[in-house]
Amino acid sequence: MKKGKGWLKPLALLSLTGALLVGCSSGNNASPGTATPAPTKKPVEQVAPQATSTDDEKPIDGGTFTHSTTSDIVTINPIFGNDTASGDVMEYTQAYLYNRNPSFDLAVYPWSLAAELPKISEDGLTYTIKMKNHAKWSDGTPITADDLIYTINAIKNPETGSPEITKYDKVKEMKKLDDYTVEIKLTQLYAPFAFGLMQKLAPAHVLKDVPFKELQAHSYGKDPAKTPTSGPYKWSEWKQKEFHVLDANPDYWGEKKPHIQKVVYKIYADQNTQVQALMKGDVDLVDSIPVTQLEAVKAKGNINISTEPGPSYEYFAFNFDKKNFPNNYGLFEGQKTRQAIAHAINRQGIIDNILKGTGKIMDAPFLPGTWADPGDAAVHYEYSVEKAKQLLKEDGWVAGADGILAKDGNRFSFEFIFNSGNSRREQAAVVIQQNLKEVGIEAKPKALDFSALVDQYANPGKFQVLLLGWQLSDPDPDGISTFGKKAFPPGNNAGWYDNPKLDALWEKAVSTVKQEERAAIYKEVGKEISTNLPYVFMYQYGTPRGMTSRVKYKDEFKPVSMIPYGETFGFLNWWIDDTKK
């Protein structure tokens, strides 16, 4: 346990960290890259968010902060809202029971609804949660244990249709010990459960009489007038596909009150329009600047840029179901074959030329720098045509008359699919095709509409190779729901990857709550998964973010690129200063 100073520091930390969720965001609009190992131009420097004020500057109360987006919300009901836009608005309006800190640890802040970290029984099956006794909804109703119990019951009930249902499927029973204390018992030991408690709550006093199957259609979360909020801002107005207005709640319960008095969440038609609005000073935050416009934004001089990679990574996934290949011949059965492909793809060249330096090579599906990151235990595959050719030869592949490798009468030719409209993947696909051709492999890229790709190919596991991305947005690193046999299609293990040794390691890692023991197991996981390779883990990536210099914050409250919604981390401590324009 750690204790820190200041509003940013949590009262205490519980170190657990990072699982996987699908990420399908569109890429940047960079010009096509090359397949050469050296970049065609000097990559951009990795720029992290920095303090925008000095220690002697005092915060100013008032002002309006404009956060831009290209999509509107669905709902700010925490039981259902899981899209990015809804999440953005909820970051301002709805409080978490527990928060995460910049290191991805579970944390209690002055703006958290919990009073302390959960107390976990020695057997790991019982969690006792103590809530603050002074938190209130924006309509003045106290936030209590009833809200916590109601929210979990609603989410775990199949009739509700909540996308979060698996967070609480191991909850056996809940007991209200007093108005602000809840005891939760699990059916089995499950270390990631603690992070399921990073939950925004729904108001029981508004929704308790609504049948679960009718909750999704209810006006709560869709009508500002009928949506009391638990966070520092009230939802005052929504003009669909144009903007939301969020006003600071004068009766906000938190010890730390917001300096900025109004937030406008403004919706634009596309990224280019967003960026133009940023450069004109019409908005304060754009969290996805196409790299082709980055230099123009920098030239304005009054916009702070961050190019740090975020929590997403790209992958090149093999399919191990032989039915997807001619003659039922699995092209990727050989471990050396998969390793050869990892050596053949010039990952750093893609980072330098297509991502313009705004990415980092990934060797295993763990967020770099977190406690579960296996580090050097994961195998690194440097770009080497010679090494790739040697491994392919050792695995029995022989060049045919057309230069394409063959084995057992089967040409090494396959199709790899990705979502159309994603310029990052479109350009990377060209490089991958060229790279693999150099070692005698015919890889044929095919762009598909994303919904069709998911419904017709990924979910049923009917493809040969996928080029897609994942987001490490869950603070726990358990990956069995992505790589385990139990997750075969229609689960997340779309490529039918079967590795009993790895499955046992994943299960072992969630069967203890001791972080040091889990970390040691994840080192084994990192070594096994990077050696055996269900995917070629490509690179961690992010999109450049820009914020106007009128927004001020001290270094301890700066945006955090590595956590979801980290672009407004510490927002309560920010202020607007228009005096130095």
Which key features would you list for this structure?
disordered N terminus; D-Maltodextrin-Binding Protein, domain 2; Dipeptide-binding Protein, domain 3; 26 strands; 581 residues
Biggest sheet details: 7 strands, mixed
> What's the CATH H-level homologous superfamily of the largest domain?
Dipeptide-binding Protein, Domain 3
Number of helices: 14
User: How many runs of DSSP E, i.e. beta strands?
Assistant: 26
CATH structural fold name of the largest domain: Dipeptide-binding Protein, domain 3
**In the CATH hierarchy, what is the class of the largest domain?**
Alpha Beta
GO molecular function, one term: peptide transmembrane transporter activity
Region (Disordered): 30-66
Pfam family, one: SBP_bac_5
GO biological process, one term: peptide transport
Describe the model.
The strands form seven sheets. Strands 2, 15, 16, 20, 21, 22 and 23 form a seven-stranded mixed β-sheet that branches. The chain has a four-stranded mixed β-sheet with strand order 3-12-11-10, covered by helices on one side. It has a four-stranded antiparallel β-sheet with strand order 6-7-9-8, covered by helices on one side. It has 14 helices and 26 strands. The chain folds into two domains: 197 residues, 3-Layer(aba) Sandwich (D-Maltodextrin-Binding Protein, domain 2), CATH 3.40.190; 230 residues, Dipeptide-binding Protein, domain 3, CATH 3.10.105. By secondary structure, the chain is of the alpha+beta class. Belongs to the bacterial solute-binding protein 5 family. InterPro entries: Peptide/Ni-bd, SBP_5, SBP_5_dom. Keywords: Signal, Transport. One of its GO terms (biological process) is peptide transport.
